[in-house]
Amino acid sequence: MAAEAFILLVFLFFAVAGPLVLYFLIQSETDNDPVLSREEAEQAARDGYEKSK
């Protein structure tokens, strides 16, 4: 009985901790995104398009 309870607790831990870890990893990747004005964003998009030609 104790082994089944332990397995259930481990499963529940990973079921809750896994998505939280993924969320915080993704959140940390988007912390330093630059905030651009509309003109800056349009210029960056044009520059990227011209480089891909």
What does this 3D model show about the protein?
- This protein is mainly α.
- It is rod-shaped, with a radius of gyration of 22 Å.
- The longest helix is centred in the N-terminal third of the chain and has 28 residues, at 2-29.
- The chain is built from two helices and no strands.
Oligomeric form? single chain
Helix content: over 70%
Number of helices: 2
CA-based shape: rod-shaped
- Structural class, by secondary structure, is mainly alpha
Distance between the termini: 65 Å
- Would you list the SSEs in sequence order as H and E? HH
Instruction: Please summarize the sheet with the most strands.
Output: none
Per DSSP, what share of the residues sits in E-state strands of 2 or more residues?
under 5%
Low-confidence stretches: none
Radius of gyration: 22 Å
Mean pLDDT: 88
How many individual β-strands?
0
Properties at a glance:
single chain; 53 residues; mainly alpha; rod-shaped
Protein topology:
Blueprint: H1 2-29, H2 38-51
